[in-house]
Amino acid sequence: MVRRIALLVAAGTLATGGAAWAGTKSHSVDVSLDTTTVVSGQRIPAGDYKLSWAGDSSPVHVSIEKGSKVLATVNAKVEQRGETAQDEQLISRTMKDGTRALEEVRLPNQKTALVFTVS
Predict the structure, then answer these.
(1) What's the chain's Rg over C-alpha atoms?
(2) pLDDT tens across 14-65, in order?
(3) Which of 3, 29, 43, 114 could cross-link to 76 by cystine, CB 3.0-4.6 Å?
């Protein structure tokens, strides 16, 4: 009887852990940077990239990828906006030293935005 309970507890733990892991949704968006841009302190050269992250609640770890290579991993907040973006929208700021810093990426066909730290 004790063995049966232990097996049921173990099976329940595995099922719950598996469900939690399977419930984490992966996301990605393709972006083009026309100039070197700072993303949460990381300098990213001009080019085409894929931003990938898992989950829908803050904070998330965003991988900045070019092809199969991860150039940087940065933190971001997931926030909701009032309007749906038609395409991906990159919101950036020019810093005092002239560098461009990415503040947020609004996701296409969604009200969701990835918000990055700008220092």
Answers:
(1) 19
(2) 444 443 445 679 999 999 999 999 999 999 999 999 999 999 989 999 999 9
(3) 114
Cis ω before 59 (30° cut-off from 0): yes
pTM to 2 decimal places: 0.77
Q: Which residues contact 93 (CB under 8 A, 6 or more apart)?
A: 100, 101, 103, 118
Q: Phi and psi at residue 98, in whole multiples of 5°?
A: 95, -10
